[in-house]
What does this fold into?
Amino acid sequence: MAKQGYKNRIRVILADRNITNRTLADKLGVSEMTVSRWVTNRFQPSMSQFVEISKILNVDIKILIEVDPTEISGTVEDEAVYALMYPSSSEKKPVL
It folds into this structure.
């Protein structure tokens, strides 16, 4: 089974907790359209927004941003996600 993308994880958690896009948007101070764009994969939340979403939904941020280390493309954002996911110096980044 393929891993769910962040958009599906947010959507599943919202549905599981009976939280609407509007409620999440209000708590984040963004528009309902912005949240809708996240859950439909038109846009991606920023790292700071992922942090706030994880706090509001009371979930570990890794649940929202988990990535397969073999899929990291080397962008600055990917490097930041990798650093959050694998803080131990004993875990080596895969060679691409």
Observations:
- The chain has two domains: 6-65, 67-96.
- The chain has a mean pLDDT of 75.
- The chain has six helices and no strands.
